[in-house]
Amino acid sequence: MRREGATACALLFLLTGCDAPSEPAPRPAPPPGVTSAPEPTSGPACTAAASTVAPAAEHLAGDWVCTGATTEMRFRFSADGRYASRESLEYNAATGRFVFHRDQEGAYRATGNRLELTPSRSTRTRRAPDDPANDYVDKPEVLTPRLFNFQATPTKLNLHEDGGYALVLVPVG
Question: How far apart are CA 35 and CA 29, in angstroms?
Answer without folding.
Answer: 9
